[in-house]
Amino acid sequence: MFMPLCFPELKTLNWGKIMNRGLLPSHYLSSYSHKLLSSYVIDYLLQEVHLEASLRSFQGFTRFLDTLGFCQGELLNYSNISRDCGVDAKTVKAYFEILVEMYIGYFLTPFQKQGRRRNIRETPKFYLMDTGLANYLKKYNFVEFKGADAGKAFEHYVFLELIAHKYLNDLEHSLNFWRTQNGTHEVDFILQNGQIAIECKISTPIERKNLKGLIAFGEEYKAKLHLVTLEQRKRLMRIDSQEILVWPIEEFLTALWAGEIL
Question: Is pLDDT of 202 > 50?
Answer without folding.
Answer: yes
